[in-house]
Amino acid sequence: MVSRVRVWLNRTYAENVFFMDQLRRNPSDRAVEIHATHGDADSPVLAAADTAELEPEGLSPAAYVEYALDQCARRGIDVFVPRLHQAAIVAHRADFAAVGTALLAPTPEAVAVFEDKATAYEAVRSVGVPVPPWWRVRTADELLAAVEEVEAAGHRACFKPASGAGGVGFRVVTRAPFSLVHLSGFPSPYVPLDLVLEALEQADEPVDWLVMPHLEQPEVSVDCLTGPDNRIRLAVGRTKNGRRRGFTLHERWLEPARRIAEGFGLHYLSNIQFRMYGDEPVLLDVNTRPAGGLHQLSLCGVNAPWAAVQLALGEDPGEIVPPFLGQDYTVVSGPRPVRPVSLPQQRAEEVESLLPAVPSPAAADSVGAAAQVLPL
What is the pLDDT of residues 15-40, one digit of tens each? Predict the structure, then answer.
């Protein structure tokens, strides 16, 4: 009898409820039990898991590793998919192996390279992957000089934090003065340059931003599955052009993604993003974790989460080629269950009863915290 597989996801994105769904609907018909932890008691991943637990707040990376090792030992975790404190966790891979847990995460060296976008751009450029021109800035004077260089080349300037994920902190610079235009409609990523310079001049500490040209669509996110032998098992591009989404196997996107994933030890699941700079695809970002939209590959007949778990368990799924490419689609929000007690009550009145791991309820309230895909 084949034993069940116990998988843990820590403080992950709401969209990974679909990652969990795919693990349970795996083509091997293997029993999977999912443990989830989070700092937000109303995260839908807690309701979607078989067992759930609130994470302690304020732990240092080293203390979090000790917490994670204890979780793995007590819960009998076979495969741990770390997002929070990934760098500290992968540095202790041998300690997790000693308690019987495989880490579904890259090498420490790969995580270190791609934690900082400037370091990442330098590294991938050294292996022949095109990157956009970029300037690292920390002061108002440096920002102004970089923006002027970008504009002199005929481009619109944008900036983003040198470290971070998910588009947090991304802004596009405009020379238009602040006016009611900026206050109409929905909030926009466009910010007047004079206001940004004023904010930097008044700041108590420097920022750490990258300035570059605003790259054009399409945006192509290549989801990669790479073995610990540095060999790609799966690479599929997900295209984004406005609301329209689709898939591609074109080598102009897949070849540089393979070069990065195999060359830098991006083991298991990673996501490598490209955009257009003129007529050339250039690297936008590298995520050393499963992408939130990874489940969309199911439209191509691929279950990437399960293939990754197989690899982590030493069960090589071999090279995976999508049997077909799904039709173009769009993404809409959809309801997912949360735990039955509302957030303030959980934390103020019932925290003691919720902290132990418990089976997720069969019936719960709902929240529009994740996304579904619809064909176009």
Answer: 999 999 999 999 999 999 999 999 99
